[in-house]
Design brief:
Layout lengths: L8 H22 L8 H18 L3 H14 L4 H13 L3 H14 L4 H13 L8
Helix pairs in contact: 1-2, 1-4, 1-6, 2-3, 2-4, 3-4, 4-5
Length: 132
């Protein structure tokens, strides 16, 4: 990652959230693997997108509500768990963030966006030796 040495954590976080939001939005287009996704999966995609938008606006309680609902609607969605990881990071709950990242990676072990986001998060936590 080519981040200037004196870049603020806020700038890094904003870039990370913007990338994650894009990944969730794009993931919503392909997450079902077929043209016949269920209503529950569609609702989960929508709630994930809303949750990420609320998170970007700083509305963490609303973001949590939407992302929790998305997790109930599609518990096997890597995008949902990745978004929840970012939310828990923002809520300063690193254990929950780590668990959500690990769940997302179990579901989608080769997803480059999730791998990158987890690696950035580990670095921010000072856990560079735990990297993938």
């Amino acid at each position: 990652m080519n981040t200037p040495v004196n870049a603020s954590p806020f700038v890094c976080m904003r870039a990370w959230l913007a990338g994650a939001a894009l990944a969730v939005l794009l993931g919503g287009c392909t997450s079902s693997g077929s043209q016949h996704s269920t209503k529950s999966q569609d609702a989960a995609i929508f709630n994930t997108q809303l949750g990420v938008q609320y998170m970007n606006q700083g509305e963490l309680a609303l973001a949590k509500e939407k992302l929790d609902r998305a997790a109930q609607q599609d518990p096997d969605s890597a995008a949902v768990h990745s978004a929840r990881a970012m939310l828990y990071e923002r809520m300063r709950e690193p254990d929950k963030a780590d668990a959500e990242f690990r769940t997302a990676l179990r579901i989608a072990p080769n997803d480059p966006t999730i791998i990158n986001n987890y690696a950035v998060w580990l670095c921010q936590q000072g856990r560079t030796d735990d990297g993938l």
